[in-house]
Amino acid sequence: MIRHKLVRIHSSVEEARGKQIANDGTLRWLSELIDAEYQGNYLLDCIKHDLDEGDEDDDAKVVSSLSRFNPAKRARMSVCNILSRHHDVTIEEIDRVAERLQGVCDGLREFIMLLGTCQPVRRPLATNIFRHGQMFGRHVEKERIISFLLHDDDDNTRLAVLPVVGDTGVGKTTLVQHACDDARVSSHFQVIMLLEFSYTSAAAAPARSETTFVLRPKHVIGDAGGVDVNVNNPLDLVELDFGSKRFLLVFEDVDTRKKQVLEDLLHARTGGSSSKQGSKIIVTTNNRLVATMGTVKPIMLKALPFPEYWFFFRAHVFSGRDLEESPGLVAVGKAMAKKLDGSFFGAKIVGGLLRNNPNPGFWRRVSGSSGIEDMSALGDGVNYVMDLSQSLLPGNVRMCQMIVSKDRFSQTELAGLHGASAAQITSWAQGPYGFARVLLCESLLPFYNLYYIADCTAGLVNGYSECEEVPCVSVVQFNTTHGVSISSLAS
């Protein structure tokens, strides 16, 4: 039966999560197991949803179809009547997934034997994926990063560099920070520094050819020995002396211009560092050209496959609610997840909104929102959150400003605005800021939690007061304490 095969695969995957796997072939094998597990669970989830809308006879047919003798062919004969009415999955899809599960199960014994040669690692207790900094998915990629960091290089004349490449919003920063937070990594490096570039002047908007950067520490783990890591010139990092300490430097969001600065920095440090052998560099970027500066094969991140993304989205939306009690919402939720197309920000924002408004009519209205329909798959994080949130706000609420902050000072939630009257919204806006502070979403990173917060006011709808309509421009301000602030200001 498919369920039985999924139990076998899941137990093997869980066993692998508790091992330190350094062999790349074994990691690729684990990646295939994880992907097959999600595909199988998604298939059963779709069939179960179809049965919830079908009858008991159909239920009996599908249960008997998942036979231990030949699941693919028996499934083809058994679910024809259901699939003629419901179209979440096709007969060919059932055949393909069942055959793949059979294929991966055939090699599980050998996979378990390979795991027996791997060292065990300490794992935290399983918790809700949105609490305590737990990360969803990316286990194989995380282990590849850790394997790179713990590997002792033979060449001590240059720093080893690992590029992590992927589109904006795909989870590069989250992945790297979780890897740095792993006990094996934090105990291996005496100093871990996450650094980010910013322009010397955001307001002046200098010509691109004249743009210069400053380098600031986003977060420091360990003892830097009293070294002042605030450097106005990135090349000043060459002069930093960590003594005999093994260090890890992480440079985030590197483009082609910043790449040249980093290459100059690495060239200057080559052979001249007194730091302990084994110090490493990680670079995150959305540009494949930047990956050429790596000394090892880059890690390429893509959006999660839909079966895996669906379970991420479902956990945000239903969060402990029994799906059997709301089969109609499941269908709308799947349609919504497909529109969001792999966006983690979208799952958090839309998921929180739907979770607090479990009404099919409301869900359908949100699903039909033109703002969601026109969203790019991932896009720029800040702009994506602004555009999506603005389209989801009630008609009498207007977003005036959005900030990304390390401090959560929201007074209410996005979902709460939909059930609030204009008087309530106006009352919220009477606080010290003059706006209703709304938490749009939050990023639960291990040691750098960011909150995306909107300042909203009540607008003119059916007699309500409205902000004066004036032309506006967007001003981007860089602040090392509170992140990026994008404000709409009168021109």
TrEMBL record:
One of its GO terms (molecular function) is ADP binding. SUPFAM superfamilies: P-loop containing nucleoside triphosphate hydrolases (SSF52540). InterPro entries: NB-ARC (IPR002182), P-loop_NTPase (IPR027417). It comes from the Eukaryota. Residues 141-321 form the NB-ARC domain. This is NB-ARC domain-containing protein.
